[in-house]
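queue> pop job 88
queue> type: inverse folding (structure -> sequence)
queue> payload:
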C-alpha cells in the first residue's frame, strides 16, 4: 500500500521503537520502527480482528497473539508502508515471524505509547495514572483495576 503524496505529510504522531528479532542463523537483528495509531491503522486492526474500535482501549483488554501482531503491524504502516516486506498479508506474516514471547512485551509497550499519542491529552494522562495505580496495587498484592477502563471515564 503505497502512500499518496498527500498522506506523506499527514502521518500522525509516532513512537520510535527498535524490535530485536533473532534471524534464522541465530544472530539478533535490530528493526527500527516508527509506530503510529492513526485512523488508518485502527481501521486495519478492526478489519483483521473484528473488534470495533470506537473505544480503542478495548483492544488492549484482549491481548492475544493475533491482536498483538495485528496492532504492531498496523501501527508501523504509516511510516513503513514503502517497505514491501511490511505491506499486506505478507507483511503481517513477516511481522508475526519477528515477534515472539521474548520481544512482544516491548512491542506492546511501544504500541501502547503510540495509542496514548492518538487520544486526547487528558485521556492519556488519566490512562497513565490508571496504569501507575494498577502497578502499585499489584506490587502491594492488591487486586488491580483494568487500566483500559479508565478511558471510558476519562472521556466523560
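queue> result:
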Amino acid at each position: 500500500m503505497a502512500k499518496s503524496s498527500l498522506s506523506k505529510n499527514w502521518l500522525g504522531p509516532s513512537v520510535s521503537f527498535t524490535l530485536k528479532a533473532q534471524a534464522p542463523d541465530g544472530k539478533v537483528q535490530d528493526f527500527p520502527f516508527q509506530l503510529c495509531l492513526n485512523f488508518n491503522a485502527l481501521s486495519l486492526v478492526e478489519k483483521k480482528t473484528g473488534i470495533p474500535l470506537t473505544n480503542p482501549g478495548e483492544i488492549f483488554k484482549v491481548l492475544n497473539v493475533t491482536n498483538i501482531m495485528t496492532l504492531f503491524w498496523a501501527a508501523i504502516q504509516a511510516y513503513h508502508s514503502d517497505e514491501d516486506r511490511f505491506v499486506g498479508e505478507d507483511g503481517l506474516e513477516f511481522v508475526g515471524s519477528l515477534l515472539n514471547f521474548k520481544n512482544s512485551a516491548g512491542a506492546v509497550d511501544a504500541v501502547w505509547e503510540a495509542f496514548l499519542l492518538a487520544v486526547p491529552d487528558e485521556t492519556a494522562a488519566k490512562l497513565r495514572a490508571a496504569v501507575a495505580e494498577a502497578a502499585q496495587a499489584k506490587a502491594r498484592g492488591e487486586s488491580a483495576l483494568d487500566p483500559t477502563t479508565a478511558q471510558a471515564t476519562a472521556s466523560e
